[in-house]
């Protein structure tokens, strides 16, 4: 039960709560576009389609989320190869999220949507988002138009993000041309989508060519930390990497806790990377409030996390990765000079 009466919430800073790097938002302007395009029903639909600012803030208060880095993870399949539509939905998404973040600077930042595979539009949105809207980073899908991240055809976008030392949240969707599973895609296919993207970023050399980009893999990295040794095993077939290269690649990524991570994935992830590489993620509002509450409590009670690891994961790692957020919610770390 929320500590606030229905409809009440805190617009100000919350006391040292989670910094949520995987936090979705569907403002009314963006929803109207999706409804007009028949991508969402006018009423109802999946949890993310029913987003409301007041409910979001109340949920954040209830679950201890101090600030959410809002993103609109729009699958490339929704763009339908239509460049004008891609430009319209990207601009609407980014301006809508920026407006809410600017109105509630201690509760939200935002990650700008990059509409791959449309290169010129993507470059324009990156420039507009960082130079005009003060974006904290970007979000992009694991694949676009049949090309996974790491494909050289996408290098121009990564070169620009590298110049800006950007943080990139990679977000999964249904696997390309795969709809045979009787289970919802988010149960397993999303994990494989993330894993495929991460492996291609590693094996195509994207991580090495663009060292200034900070990549966040959602859902504890999908299957990558669990099965990273298969990249070394594949060397026997001419496709793999040596163990030191694989470990270095694992340490180049950040990983969020959405999924949830605790308790099942935690031991494997901590055996692969330091707690300094892990960030709190709720996946709200794709995950409803009750799911966020259960997952957040599970993280607090995770037997694999000591007090220091929990402190880093819940807040401190994100404040280091997103300095503009840190200046707003932890100004004591940035004393005024002059």
Walkthrough of the structure:
The chain is an alpha/beta fold and 338 residues long. It has a single domain, classed as TIM Barrel. It contains 14 helices and ten strands. It has helices at 28-36, 53-63, 83-103, 119-131, 155-163, 185-203, 206-209, 224-227, 229-233, 243-250, 266-272, 289-300, 307-321, 323-329; strands spanning 18-24, 65-71, 108-113, 137-141, 143-144, 147-148, 167-171, 214-217, 253-256, 278-279. The strands form two sheets. Strands 1-2-3-4-7-8-9-10 form an eight-stranded parallel beta sheet. The protein has a two-stranded antiparallel sheet with strand order 5-6. Helix 1 (28-36) runs antiparallel to helix 3 (83-103), helix 3 (83-103) packs parallel to helix 4 and helix 13 crosses helix 14. The model is unreliable at 1-8 and 179-183 (pLDDT under 50).
What keyword list fits this structure?
TIM Barrel, alpha/beta, disordered N terminus, two-stranded antiparallel sheet, 338 residues, 43% helix, 14 helices, eight-stranded parallel β-sheet
